[in-house]
Amino acid sequence: MLDPDRRSEPRTRADLSARLRCKAGECAITLLDASTGGIQAMSLEPPARGEVVELLVGEHALPGRIRWQSGQRFGLSFRDRISVEALLDGGHGPVTLAQIASAQRHREGWNGAWPFSRKGTGKKTQIAAVFAGVGIAVWAVSALAGSSRASETKPQTAMVDPAAPATAQR
């Protein structure tokens, strides 16, 4: 077991009942502490080091691997980083940080597309420039087409020389 002073990130104390799905089946466990990368837990029959398991808390199933085991205690590292708060809450909604970020992007929807938001400003500027360029091109083509049509539809009037004989005026 790692010395608490040598841990890579802070732990949050927990006293939470959960289930662990492993080779031997499902067993009851007690979470002792949690971090974004894993948990320390206790079980009457802890799984062996290296075993791939699934932590079941509320409606959440979090895959991971047993990193150490000593007596009834063991350490589990998650496959994906989690929100400790969401895990200990045990309620509905996302737990992994990737799921939380995805849900946040989904909630933002079009709000993230407004020009005053910081995210995606470069892409929005490019899109606006393309639309402006297309608009200018359409306007220029229609202006040129309009001026050539105007010269085609003007009535042609012959210059009449008043001194010329009448037969030549036809």
From TrEMBL:
Keywords: Membrane, Transmembrane, Transmembrane helix. The chain crosses the membrane at residues 127-145. Residues 5-85 form the PilZ domain. The keyword Lipoprotein does not apply. Residues 150-170 are annotated as: Disordered. GO terms for molecular function: cyclic-di-GMP binding. This is PilZ domain-containing protein. InterPro entries: PilZ_domain.
